[in-house]
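Let us practice reading a record.
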Amino acid sequence: MKNSGKIDTYGFREYDARWVYEKDIDDDGIVQLGKGLGTQIINHTKKNNPRIIVGQDYRSYSEHIKEKLKEGLVSTGCKIEDIGLSLSPMVYFAQFNLNSDAIAMVTASHNENGWTGVKMGIKKGLTHAPEEMKELKDITLNQNFINGEGDVKKIDDFHNVYKNDLITKNPLNKKIKAVVACGNGTAGIFAPEILRSIGCEVIELDCELDWTFPKYNPNPEDLEMLHAISKAVKENNADIGFGFDGDGDRVGVIDDKGNEIFSDKIGLLIARNLSKDHKNSKFIVDVKSTGLYSNDKILKENKCETIYWKTGHSHIKRKVNTDNALAGFEKSGHFFFNKPLGYGYDDGINSAIQVCKLLDKNNKKMSEILAELPTTYQSPTMAPYCKDSEKYDVVENLVKEITNIKENKTKVDDQEIREILTVNGVRFSFDDGSWGLIRASSNKPSLVVVTESPTSEERKKKIFDFIDNLLQQTGKVGDYDQKI
């Protein structure tokens, strides 16, 4: 007889699973998800009793959900190693340290209270890609489950193993005064201690665990959180400010003057710093990131290559892995450091450590280091409405249209398109380093539009007008969420 648990199909996302608990998924639905995941892991590993690392974030209901997920996993024959209260990167690290077959982390990251979810992975250092999520969805909803006998083992104090790994590898030579903001999320019991232990003077901001999130969601893209960090940096005359998300895989950065630094620019500064000791390295960045990587003089001097790749932490993580890149940077604040700096997955605390090392190596303030980058005029990420059923076709037709414009040498604001990249929608570049991007959003009914110019605000706007004109001609694009 089939289980009648509630499990809304939309919760299977591109890289993980997320639902509003109990509205969209109930306890029986979570058990079912565990059975689906256990079956998938056994199918992939060809083991009857694979070892699965399991952890959870600090939300009030996360431990209960983890127990239900474990119930499903155990019923398929999985052997659970439960490391308890965790950050997502601590669970990823545990797979390497304990040499397990797979991981499952119960977290809804920075989503509002009420949300739950699971981040999953089988191959070390990687999380589920879209094809694995589709496979999991099919197994779970069709209830094609394997039956077996597993068990559960609790692993106490693993958080100390994770902390010590980061602390022992990364001592600083000078004291860096850092505001560390955790939005009352799980990173509060990890980030301050780790950064203090490598040599930072830490000013804590909302680091006490409080699952009601009394001030704002722990999200480094949340303006309230960024403003609070900025204020604390200025009041304490700090060198740097860090804001961590709910499960600790992302970080936002504020400079010594209280200004937010966009993550793609932070990535470039870190890449420059690393390139001096790691010549001939590869870096992976997502297609929304600044064009400055392409012609950066320091990266060129050190014979480093930058590859623009599909937006999405799972995509960038896999590309870092398959291309054996030194690091990957995503504009949303996911950074990935490969050996010898990390294990290839996204860890917000390791990302903050790499920013501290940048300050440690340079006898300059963060704002001064940032000022060494060429000025660029970059639009925000803009999302014009486009139906889910139409958005991919719209983008495919625009790829053809922009390719024709390039081949016919038609000028856009008096310049020809020099290069087209189609790994994720279409990103087209000009000789002056300006570029525009049109892609389909992976998680909502919209397109994504970004433009940047190192020349002027006006040129950035002209490229946007060119894109907007193409979009309006399709007749299938609605209002923007924001517009320049």
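A brief commentary: The chain has three domains: 9-156, 161-371, 377-474.
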